[in-house]
Amino acid sequence: MMSHSQHHDHLDHEDQRDRHDHDGEGHAHHDEAGLADLLDLDAVVLGAYLEKVTEWAGRHAPDAPRTIVDVGAGTGTGGLAFARRFATAEVVAVDRSPLMLGRLQATARERGLADRLRVVQADLDLAWPSVGGVDLAWASSSLHEVADPHRVLTDLHAALNPGGLLVVVEMDGPPRFLPDDIGFGRPGLESRCHEAMARAGWNAHPDWRPYLERAGFQIAAEHRFGIEVTPAPPETGRYAHAYLSHIRRGLDGRLPADDLDALDRLLAQDDPGALLHRGDLTVRGTRTAWAARRP
């Protein structure tokens, strides 16, 4: 299965996949719609990070790339950022979700980029789609979701033109929003949530360097991007609410009952201590990027 990019940081990937495949269509659609909302909020709140990472990638990319592929595009946060940076490039967004690709096309139209966007619905666990020669490929939080990363990387290497660049990005840990003491429950709730997520294998990914080298790439650069959004923008409460709502179900049975109660209070709509009403939120995290070139 190929998941959608940036995102979709499933707490328990197999459990999420089973729900997506076997639940009713409306339930799966609801999960995808919520995930799409989360990705769009990620783009708004972390816009400054996107500018930094695309600028860094651009320093290692071929001059004036003609074709950029967003691998596991989701709602296209990264692909559209590259479209803004490289004004003559065509962006090819590859994802298995029609809902995500539809959302991306609507956003591209709103931003006047529709004529430079091509969407391709494909499951990368089945085969690499026919997209033509590629100058720059972007895989943000998507490579760790494929069943056979070596095969996908080998396919990407073959798709890149000589001198072309692949940029792989992974989150080093979940984003942090809360102070240690949120005013109710025991201090340290967010840290305990992150520890439970780590035990469940959330977002587990390797150091991609040896995988990239094995597939024939030469590592051009590796960089860790620190993220600290201060002051937090107005959308931070909605972003934190969307993210913690996304992981909440996977924390059942992994956290003590009092922590789950505190988390549910944070996710409430009308509680004065809820995420949507707090003034003490921040956005902190780190992401690691690898830039790898086809010789």
From TrEMBL:
One Pfam entry name: Methyltransf_25
InterPro entries according to UniProt: Methyltransf_25 (IPR041698), SAM-dependent_MTases_sf (IPR029063)
SUPFAM superfamilies the UniProt entry points to: S-adenosyl-L-methionine-dependent methyltransferases (SSF53335)
GO terms under biological process: methylation
All residue ranges annotated as the Methyltransferase domain in the record: 68-164
One annotated GO molecular function: methyltransferase activity
Alphabetized UniProt keyword annotations: Methyltransferase, Transferase
CDD domains tied to this protein: AdoMet_MTases
Region (Disordered) residue spans: 1-30
Protein name stated in the entry: Methyltransferase
